[in-house]
Specification:
six-stranded parallel β-sheet; 2 domains; Rossmann fold; 10 helices; two-stranded antiparallel sheet; 239 residues; alpha/beta; 15% strand
Length: 239
């Protein structure tokens, strides 16, 4: 295989250790109280149902094999039906929803050290993730990640999700790298490895809990942590 010249990462569950629970009742209790200040009197249950219906309507308009929902647009549609055309309010609802649903947000211990190694050795880096643009970039900034990446290729910018090969092509094009000379690091065989391999990229399956070794498609390399991924990239064993 050709030498690796660029590295593209998944974001959540690869670099970022996150856990969310979007079904908690208190999320919608707090959102409905917040919206009262803007004249919206939907109770928590009505707001929950409105959010679910608008997500379904939005996805039904996407003529994609792997459609992605844009939460900010969904909230804009909900608020517009209440007579509020306020982009800032839609954004703040998204961020409040995220904050209330978030139970853990932190880096894996190896994330920053390995990114520093890659950057120091001159590898161009990008993020390719199924993520909401309304809070992913801010979370990257909070965690100190954004400084390492030339580009963030997020599914909500395009309306489709992994494993759609177009996302992987976009990331390689932005980094001006032939797909065969780029490696994608992700934790899900069915989306991360499949998408990368479809365009001829090399792929590392990050399997921190060692649960995915028997799943297809197979990666070029299995890594139990990012240090193992770094060692494989740096060793040149992919030749």
């Amino acid at each position: 295989m050709p030498k690796i010249r660029a590295v593209i990462f998944d974001f959540y569950s690869t670099l970022v250790d996150i856990n969310t629970n979007e079904s908690k009742k208190e999320i919608f209790d707090s959102l409905s109280l917040y919206l009262q200040y803007y004249g919206v009197n939907n109770n928590a249950e009505k707001l929950r149902m409105a959010l679910q219906l608008e997500k379904e309507r939005y996805l039904a308009t996407r003529e994609e094999h792997y459609p992605e929902v844009d939460l900010e647009t969904v909230f804009k549609n909900i608020l517009r039906k209440e007579g509020l055309d306020n982009p800032f309010l839609a954004e703040s609802c998204c961020k409040l929803f995220r904050l209330l649903s978030r139970e853990r947000l932190q880096l894996f211990p190896d994330s920053l050290p390995v990114l520093k190694k890659l950057k120091r050795n001159g590898y161009p880096l990008a993020i390719l993730s199924d993520a909401q643009k309304v809070f992913c970039l801010e979370e990257g900034e909070i965690l100190g990640l954004n400084q390492f990446f030339n580009y963030f290729v997020l599914s909500t910018y395009f309306g489709f999700r992994k494993p759609d090969p177009r996302l992987f092509t976009i990331a390689c094009t932005l980094l001006n790298t032939n797909p065969a000379e780029a490696v994608y690091i992700g934790n899900d065989p069915g989306t991360d490895i499949k998408g990368a391999k479809q365009i001829g990229m090399q792929a590392i399956l990050l399997d921190r809990e060692q649960k995915n070794k028997d799943r297809e498609p197979k990666p070029d390399y299995y890594a139990n942590d990012l240090w193992e991924a770094w060692e494989w990239i740096n060793s040149g064993t992919q030749f």
